[in-house]
Write a structure and sequence with these properties.
Elements (H helix, E strand, L loop, with lengths): L18 H12 L2 H14 L5 E3 L1 H13 L4 H5 L4 E6 L4 E2 L2 E2 L2 E5 L12 E6 H4 L4 H12 L2 E4 L2 E4 L8 H7 L13 H6 L9 H4 L3
Parallel strand pairs: 2-6
Antiparallel strand pairs: 1-2, 3-4, 5-6, 7-8
Helix pairs in contact: 3-6
Length: 204
C-alpha cells in the first residue's frame, strides 16, 4: 500500500482523480468552526495581519452624524472624545452577532488612550450593510453616549434597541437587502430625521 500523503501526479496537477486531495478536502469540510477560526488566527499572526485598525472613514461618518442629529447634543456640548475602530474579527454574544459596540474608556486605559469612548464596527458582521444602514448603525452606537453625575457613561438600550430607531426604520433595519432612508440627506432637506413607521421602514 502506498502511504504517501500526496500522489506523484500532484506536482503536475491530477485534478479530481487525486485520492489524497479528496481526503484533504474531506478533512477540511469536517473541521469544526472553532478549529477553522483558530487556523485562521494562526495564519493571520504568521502573515502579520491586523485584527483591528483605526478607521478614519468611520470617524468621518461619526462626525457627520454627531453634527446633524439633535439628539447627540451631549457629545457636542461636552466635547466627548471618540475613537473609531474597525475589527476584522466577528463578535458574538450569547449566540447573537454583534454589528458594533460603544465602550467607555475606564481605569488605567485613560492614561494611554486620548478618548472617552471607542466605537468598533465588526467588519465580518456588517459587510452586507449599505451605506445608509451603516449611518443608522453609527447613530445607534453614538446614542449610547450619555452623561451623569459622575461624568460620561454608557446608556443602555431599550430592551433590544432604542425604541424610536425601531419605530423609524423597522425591527429588521440592519438585515440583508433592507432599504432604509439616508438619515443625513433627510436632515439636510429639513425632513423628520428619518422618522417613519416600522411598516414604512421595511423593504416592500
Amino acid at each position: 500500500m502506498d502511504e504517501r500523503l500526496i500522489c506523484s501526479k500532484c506536482a503536475i496537477g491530477c485534478g479530481d482523480s487525486c485520492a489524497a486531495l479528496k481526503e484533504l478536502l474531506k478533512l477540511y469540510r469536517e473541521l469544526k468552526a472553532e478549529e477553522k477560526t483558530e487556523i485562521i488566527k494562526d495564519l493571520r499572526r504568521e502573515l502579520s495581519l491586523v485584527d483591528y485598525e483605526v478607521a478614519d472613514d468611520l470617524r468621518e461618518l461619526g462626525e457627520k452624524i454627531i453634527s446633524a442629529m439633535p439628539e447627540l447634543s451631549i457629545i457636542r456640548d461636552y466635547d466627548a472624545k471618540i475613537g473609531y475602530v474597525r475589527s476584522f474579527e466577528a463578535k458574538r454574544d450569547k449566540g447573537r452577532s454583534i454589528n458594533a459596540d460603544c465602550r467607555k474608556i475606564n481605569g488605567t486605559y485613560t492614561a494611554y488612550l486620548p478618548f472617552d469612548f471607542v466605537i468598533t464596527f465588526y467588519e465580518p458582521n456588517v459587510y452586507h450593510m449599505s451605506e445608509n444602514q451603516k449611518k443608522i448603525l453609527m447613530l445607534h452606537e453614538l446614542r449610547h453616549i450619555g452623561i451623569g453625575e459622575r461624568g460620561f457613561r454608557i446608556e443602555n438600550h431599550d430592551v433590544e434597541d432604542f425604541r424610536d430607531i425601531l419605530d423609524r426604520f423597522g425591527i429588521e433595519w440592519n438585515g440583508f437587502d433592507q432599504e432604509v432612508p439616508d438619515i443625513l440627506a433627510e436632515v439636510k432637506a429639513g425632513g423628520d430625521g428619518g422618522k417613519r413607521t416600522k411598516r414604512e421602514g421595511k423593504k416592500k
